[in-house]
What we know:
By secondary structure, this protein is of the alpha/beta class. It has helices at residues 4-16, 19-26, 30-44, 60-83, 98-115, 131-136, 195-207, 220-228, 271-285, and strands spanning 49-52, 55-58, 90-96, 119-125, 142-148, 159-173, 186-189, 212-216, 234-237, 249-264.
Amino acid sequence: MLDVRKLRLLRELAHRGTIVAVAEALSYTPSAVSQQLTALERETGVPLLERTGRRVQLTPAALGLVEHTESILAILQKAAAELASTALTGTLRIGVFPTAVQTILTPAIVALSTEHPGLDLMVAELDPASVPDALREESLDVALVQEYDYVPVVSEPGLQTEPLLEETLHLAALTAGPLTAWRDSPWIAGTPGTLCHAMTVRACEATGFVPRIRHHADDFGAVLALMAAGQGVAFVPDLGAVAAPATVVLTPLPIRRRTHLAYRRGTGDHPAISAARLALQRAADQMPNGLA
């Protein structure tokens, strides 16, 4: 009988790429991870890892085993959800991106706290690009993820998503003008590696130029403050433009940002996660016209 804990380590190695990264994510030592994977190889009777110096690669047999592992973990999550008490208690960990904290998260957790006082709510603010790993390592239970027209969502094995909100993207500048008018201007974008940064680069490239990014900021309040001070232009979604300075001109673009709810496969019907999904969806549905 294969050990689910060892299978999970193999799954994490497939996603994270190195034994060190797996160890850091799951609070193991690298040697402990290596030992467990070696033991899994003995249990299966087939090579799972190809070692080249300090690096390892998964064999075709290992990749097939990872696919089965995703299904096994989803079944176990579903079984746990079915066994969970209908009285909502315990910890519920929710991950959100910054612009959703005030507009979507706050009314949702107020409703959850009122309707289910036995829930211990914990909120983590993080970039949507970090959400899949956080859900897989179970440091989050439900979270918000995003995609832009130019940065589509990547299907993540072991995770399930559902639509929550769609927004218009705006060009934020001190004067109105088409996107091409800002090809030689300085730009303000998110930190490299974030979806916002990738969207800025790809949207400009699709228009025929590479943006000259002068400043990096992940909070749209900071982006708008820099922009209002004449430090560049930027793309800002509806949620980020709620408190735009009066001097900022927002030009709607035919580009959309879509937000989805994400959770581990098999957990959607867990009473606590089901309640969170409902509260977050209600909060999104109550957004002003033009935001939902």
